[in-house]
Amino acid sequence: MRFRLLVIGVSLQVAMLVSVSVSAEELAGEEALKAEAVSIVKQFGGALKPKLKQAVQSGGFGHAINICSNEAPKIAEQLSAETGWVVKRVSLKPRNNKSATADPFEKKILEKFDRLQLEGLPVDTMVHSEVIDNQYRFIKAQPVEGLCLGCHGDSLSVEVREALHLQYPDDIATGYSLGQIRGAFSLTKPL
């Protein structure tokens, strides 16, 4: 009888060690995925911001709307093709309903981010990642920066209002203030 108890005890210890090792491997894998997602988000911003700044300088905010409308989806497509991730930007108040409307998971996380911001959590720290249906989902909040206010803020110029009406007749992505969450970068990778 003692012998059996000893064997069972050893078996449980081995089972626990194996379980811990798998969890550590999974954790390391998720950390690597998170780091990769953060890098892709930085690449997206690094590619889009200079184009927006140049557009504003050369043709004003009305011109920048065309850049956002045309270039942002191209950057997302290019990054998706290069990385194997699905890369997009989403919002609770999307400007581009075709590409920026949040799915139910993204909507839940964006609403959570809004609550966290009301509680005082800094937007730049808001990141959520999770494995769902054999996919790694990563969402990083996107705050309104000074550059964004020309097309997404409270007081828009006549030029911007006209450009928005032409490009996005059903636009609801205005009325934001500096630092508010405008949306998020949403990345998905099949596992």
Radius of gyration over C-alpha positions, nearest whole angstrom: 22 Å
List low-pLDDT spans.
Answer: 1-22
Mean pLDDT, rounded to whole units? 88
N-to-C order of helices and strands: HEHEEHHE
Please summarize the sheet with the most strands.
4 strands, antiparallel
The helical percent reads 55-70%
Beta strand %: 15-25%
Any idea how many domains?
1
Describe the structure.
- By secondary structure, this protein is of the alpha+beta class.
- The protein has one domain (29-190).
- 58% of the residues lie in helices and 16% in strands.
- The chain has helices spanning 2-83, 104-118, 149-152, 158-167; strands spanning 86-90, 127-132, 135-143, 181-190.
- Strands 1-4-3-2 form a 4-stranded antiparallel sheet.
- β2 and β3 (135-143) form a beta hairpin.
- The longest helix has 82 residues, at 2-83.
Brief rundown of the structure:
The protein has helices spanning 2-83, 104-118, 149-152, 158-167, and strands at residues 86-90, 127-132, 135-143, 181-190. The chain has 191 residues and is α+β, with helices and mostly antiparallel strands.
Question: Can you tag this structure with a few keywords?
Answer:
191 residues, alpha+beta, four-stranded antiparallel sheet, 4 strands
Task: Describe the protein's topology.
Elements lengths: L1 H82 L2 E5 L13 H15 L8 E6 L2 E9 L5 H4 L5 H10 L13 E10 L1
Antiparallel strand pairs: 1-4, 2-3, 3-4
